[in-house]
Amino acid sequence: MTGAVAQRRRSTAAFAVAATLAWGVLYYAFAVVLTPIGAEQGWANATIAGAFSTGMLASGFAAPLVGRTVDRHGARLVVASGTALGAAGLLVWSKVTTIAGLYATWAVIGAAMAATLYEPAAATVGRYPPQQRRTALLAITLVTGLSSTIFSPLTAALVDLAGWRGGLRVLAAGFVVIGVPVALAGIPRHGEDRSATPPPPVTEHTSPTRSPDFRRMAAAFAIARGLGVAVAAHVVAYLITLGFTPLRAAALAGAIGVAKVVGRIAVTVAQRLTDGFRAAIVTLGVQGASLTLPVLFPGAVGVVAMVALFGASYGATMILRPELIATRFAGHGIGRFNGAAAFVGAIAGAAAPLFVGVGVTTTGAYTVPWLVLAATGLGAAVLIAPLRPR
After folding, report:
1. pLDDT tens digit sequence for 1-58
2. From the centroid of its chain, how far is CA 390?
3. Contact 26, 112 (CB under 8 A)
4. pLDDT for residue 27
5. DSSP string covering 239-269
6. How far is residue 110 from each of residues 224, 231, 324, 346, measured CA to CA in Å?
7. Tens digits of per-residue pLDDT, 221-233?
8. Can you tell me the distance from the alpha carbon of 25 to that of 299, in angstroms, rounded to the nearest whole number?
9. How far apart are CA 294 and CA 367, in angstroms?
10. Which terminal Cβ of the chain has fewer Cβ within 10 Å, N or C?
């Protein structure tokens, strides 16, 4: 095994572990502690959930800065610092007693998310040779796909043992004690990554906003992100209105996660047969079209088909976005482009669930907003259709 190959595998493993920890303690833990916080403080769930939305927006606003920093200085210190910041945010969160304090804390945690989830890995792995890049992206997203499976029950157990405040302190300690050494030991120092092409100097000509092609790409994947968040937020309630029991609706919603894993594997294999842009057209089209299936085929068949196809296509977009940016904008500061795309995606992710909620309130049913989501998803495929690799 050459030194470059060994370094690449070590770096991929470090990104996978660091991101899995971050997804688990900064993202998935929130849902577990939401109810205990409300019970103790007397706050409504909707009010508490607003803090999470604040964090998502903060993550989006921080993502461009994170991308530029990775381009200029590498991901090693970015991920280590983001992990330390996230752990500090968890400790502060464990002490909050006011809504204002909760929201302010989650703005900080959101910034930590930008530095620890997918963006630093995408900016670094994006400079690997094509096949090695695809393998690394698949490995990272498959491992991080286990984060909810690991950390949701772990967080619940900690809350049972130590209360939600004590549970957050334990998560914070584990996050920093494991995450920081993993980042420092596994991610190469800036300029020492032998497995990737060096990032180019960042100039005014590498601005994402100056590229019409990037604007198309960012808009298309922002739509995909918005659909993913909206479906995650509303699918259980939607299925209940279709006559499913809450238990069956929740089980079907959980199956979307399994389908996402299948989609990531499938799209990685597909890119051996075709380019990522053609794969993206199909993937985005399927994501949108899948939402029409419960309307076109009422009953279990339509719903199961929607769950399978939507989950697989949404999972595939998580690999395709960094892959297409690396393919189309190689040599132009991949971190900067990934960060800008993440910013647009965060805005869409915050807006889409609100749109569905307003649509349901206005029309009295999920059918119309669900079909609008479907049409928007098909529009994403149209947006990206003219693009080809250079």
Report:
1. 566 777 888 889 999 999 999 988 998 888 788 888 888 999 887 788 788 888 888 9
2. 27
3. yes
4. 85
5. HHHTT--HHHHHHHHHHHHHHHHHHHHHHHH
6. 21, 21, 25, 11
7. 999 999 988 888 7
8. 37
9. 9
10. N
Q: Look up the pTM and report it.
A: 0.80
Sign of CA dihedral 329, 335, 338, 341: negative
As a whole number of angstroms, the distance between CA 385 and CA 58 comes to 31
pLDDT tens by residue, 231-289: 887 888 888 889 988 888 878 887 888 888 899 899 888 888 888 888 999 999 999 99
- Chain centroid, CA 176 distance in Å: 21
Domains and CATH numbers, the chain: 3-186 (1.20.1250.20), 208-384 (1.20.1250.20)
Cα-atom radius of gyration of the chain, to the nearest Å? 20
Instruction: Take residue 243 and report the two structure tokens written for it.
Output: 């006559």
Structure-token match 């792995």, residue found: 125
Q: Can you tell me the distance from the alpha carbon of 159 to that of 152, in angstroms, rounded to the nearest whole number?
A: 11
Structure tokens at 364: 């009295």
Distance CA 345, CA 119 (A): 12
Mean pLDDT, the chain, rounded, equals 86
Please give the distance of CA 169 from its chain centroid, rounded to a whole number: 24
Of the listed ranges 290-294, 318-322, 376-380, the one predicted with least confidence: 318-322
CA 279/CA 387 separation, integer angstroms: 12
Tokens of 279: 């794969």
Q: If you search the block for the tokens 């996402």, which residue do you land on?
A: 260
Q: List the structure tokens of 376.
A: 């928007």
Retrieve residue 275's tokens: 């380019």
Specify the pLDDT at position 33.
86
